[in-house]
Amino acid sequence: MKKFYTLVLAACSCIAAGASSPQPAAITEYSPDPLEPAATAPARAASQVADDVDYSPWESLGTATLSDGYGNILYTLNNYKGANQEDIVFTNTTEVMTRHLGSDPDVQQFKFCKLFGFTDMIADYDATSGIASIAITSTDIPVPEELAEYYGCEEIRFSCTSISYSPVRKVFTFGNPFFYIFDYSGFPGSSFTASLPDARPEIGFSFSLKAGGMKSTDKSITLSVTRTEVDHVRYITRFKEQFLFADVAAVSDGTCDYSEATDEITVAYTEGYGYYRVLALAFDAEDKYMGIYRTLTMFSNLPPEGTWQSVGRGVWHHPDMPSYQIYDWNSGESTTYEFPADKMQWEVEIEKRTDTDREVYRVVNPYSPSCGLAETFNDLLDKIYSGDEAPYRPDAFRTDDTFWFVFDVTEPGKFTIEGGRPNGVGNDHFMGMGFYELSEERMSGATFSDNRFCIPRYSVNDLVIDMPGSDGIDGITIDGDDSNAPVEYYDLQGRRVDNPSAGLYIRRQGRHSSKVFVK
Question: How many domains are there within the chain?
Answer without folding.
Answer: 3
